[in-house]
Amino acid sequence: MKISIIVPAFNQGQYLAQALDSIFAQTIKPHEVIVINDGSQDKTQEIASLYPVKLINQVNKGLASARNTGIMNATGDYILPVDSDDILLENCVERISEVIEETDADVVAPSFKCFGVNNDTVVLMPNPTLEDFKTANRIGYASAIKKEVLLEVGGYSPRMTWGYEDLHLWVNLLTRNYKLVTIKDVLWLYRTKEKSMVHEAQSHHQELMAQIYKDFPNFHA
Q1: Cα separation, 216 vs 211, whole angstroms
Q2: Nearest to residue 16, comparing CAs of 52, 57, 47?
Q3: How big is the chain by its Cα radius of gyration, in Å?
Q4: In angstroms, rounded to a whole number, what is the distance separating the alpha carbons of residues 189 and 192?
Q5: By CB count within 10 A, which of 90, 149, 154, 205 is most buried?
Q6: CA distance 6 to 169
Q7: CA distance 75 to 10
Q8: pLDDT of residue 198
Q9: Which residues pair with 109 in a beta bridge?
Q10: Which burial class, exposed, middle or buried, applies to 69 when counting CB atoms under 10 A from its CB (0-12, 13-18, 19+)?
């Protein structure tokens, strides 16, 4: 069972080395690491080229498209999306691999801790159902997903321009009865900043949820 880590990167060069260092410090090495440079104007390409990664440069298409590029180029059985400013704890890949072996789940979602502006620890509820997602997103985007399942559903939706592309994907998978398992252990660190993509997404909350409801009419709370 092979885990491919995909790292979309857009103008986050100042954090990228820290993210990649944490990936290459894993107790069990990932099958491969793919960095998708999504049209960055900073030193992202230079920094990524210092590491043994598969580097893909593309014009800026946004996060969903960058992740889809990573999925299409990955050769592992599972895809673990990691943002370029995240940090993986050293046992992240090992623990996820254990849970995959135990459960054969389609999605394995670890708990995480925020750092930076916000320092909350987010311990995930046990194996949330589609019903649980009607009130809030219940897992983080850095969750391992079976590649064959991602290909079956078409990956992340490019319609989610402002964000929530991960929530859209979870709803897509759960409406098709794919198996989601959570891990209560904190396995990755999510960087919080004064201004980031999540704030942009929240400012478009109604619009993004309207798209999800349109795509999955049975999901409406």
Answers
A1: 9
A2: 47
A3: 16
A4: 9
A5: 149
A6: 16
A7: 23
A8: 64
A9: 182
A10: buried
Q: Around Cβ 54, how many Cβ atoms within 10 Å? A: 16
Measured at the alpha carbon of residue 199, what is the angle toward residues 168 and 53, in degrees to the nearest 5? Answer: 70
Rounded to the nearest 10 degrees, the angle between the axes of helix 165-175 and helix 63-73 is: 60
Closest CA to 171 of 218, 105, 115, 117: 218
Q: Which single residue is written with the structure tokens 């960095």?
A: 35
Q: What is the pLDDT of residues 97-134, one digit of tens each?
A: 999 999 999 999 999 999 988 889 999 999 999 999 99
C-alpha–C-alpha distance, residues 89 and 57, integer Å = 27
Q: H-helix or E-strand containing 150?
A: helix 147-153
Contacts of 25 (CB under 8 A, 6+ apart): 90
Angle at 204 between CA 114 and CA 39, to 5 degrees: 70
The tokens describing 212, both together, are: 């999800």
CA nearest to 56, candidates 77, 42, 31, 73: 73
Residue type, 139: I
Whole-number pLDDT of residue 159: 87
CA gap 97, 100 in Å, rounded? 5
How do beta strands 32-38 and 3-9 pair? parallel
Q: How far apart are CA 107 and CA 166, in angstroms?
A: 12
Question: Looking at the DSSP assignment, which residues form a beta bridge with residue 35?
Answer: 7, 55
Residue 204: what residue type?
H
pTM of the predicted model, to two decimals? 0.94
